[in-house]
Specification:
The protein is of the alpha+beta class. Helix content is 33%, strand content 26%. Strands 1, 2, 3, 4, 5, 6 and 7 form a seven-stranded mixed beta sheet that branches. A hairpin with a 2-residue loop joins strand 4 and strand 5.
C-alpha cells in the first residue's frame, strides 16, 4: 500500500517560498519555489537527479533559470558502478520573473518548445513546464517521425497560489512521476 502524498502546502518551505513571490520578483525567487517543489515530489533517495542552469545573460531575452530532472533506472540506483549514461532526462522547467505576474503566452510556448527540443532524450520524449511568477503551464513533448509535437497536460494556466491550482499541480506532478520513466523510455 502506498502512502498518500502530503499536500504541497503542508510543506512550510513551499508556503514560505510562495509568499516571497511578488510581481516583479527576481527569477531566482520563482526558482526557489520550484526547486523546493521538485525536490519534495522527486526525492533523490528515489533515484532522481537535478541540474540547475543559472540565468542567461542575454540582453534580448528575459533571464531564465532552468531546472532539469533526471531519473536513474532502479537497477542502477544503488550500484557502485553506476554510469551517468543510464540516466534519462524526464523533465525540464523554465522559471522566470513576471513583471505583472502574467501567465505564459504563445512566445513562451515557442521558447519551451526550443528548450525541449534541445534537451530530448534518446527516445525523443520529455515533460516540461514554464513558470512565470506564480503561474505555470505543463507540457509533454514527443518527437515523432520528424514532426515535433508539444501538448499541454491541462487546460489554461495554473495559478499555484490558488487552492485548486495547487491541487492541479500536485496531480500533474504525480502523473509525471508515475509515468515519466516508462513513457520517456518507450
Amino acid at each position: 500500500m502506498t502512502t498518500p502524498t502530503q499536500s504541497l502546502l503542508s510543506n512550510v518551505a513551499i508556503r514560505s517560498a510562495l509568499r516571497h513571490i511578488k510581481p516583479g520578483s527576481h527569477e531566482g525567487t520563482v526558482q526557489d519555489l520550484w526547486n523546493i517543489i521538485v525536490l519534495d515530489r522527486f526525492p533523490s533517495h528515489e533515484g532522481y537527479k537535478y541540474l540547475w542552469k543559472g540565468p542567461n545573460n542575454s540582453l534580448h531575452e528575459p533571464h531564465i533559470i532552468i531546472i532539469q530532472l533526471y531519473d536513474r533506472p532502479p537497477t542502477s540506483q544503488n550500484s557502485s558502478d553506476f554510469d551517468d549514461s543510464d540516466e534519462r532526462q524526464i523533465f525540464l522547467m523554465k522559471c522566470r520573473s513576471a513583471p505583472l505576474d502574467i501567465p505564459p503566452n504563445d512566445t513562451e510556448e515557442e521558447r519551451i518548445f526550443d528548450e525541449l527540443l534541445q534537451a530530448l532524450n534518446d527516445k525523443g520524449k520529455i515533460f516540461g513546464a514554464v513558470a512565470i511568477g506564480k503561474k505555470v503551464r505543463f507540457y509533454r513533448f514527443e518527437e515523432a517521425d520528424s514532426e515535433n509535437s508539444i501538448s499541454r497536460l491541462h487546460d489554461g494556466t495554473i495559478d499555484i497560489d490558488d487552492p485548486d491550482g495547487t491541487v492541479q499541480v500536485e496531480e500533474i506532478l504525480g502523473h509525471i512521476k508515475a509515468n515519466a520513466c516508462q513513457w520517456t523510455s518507450s
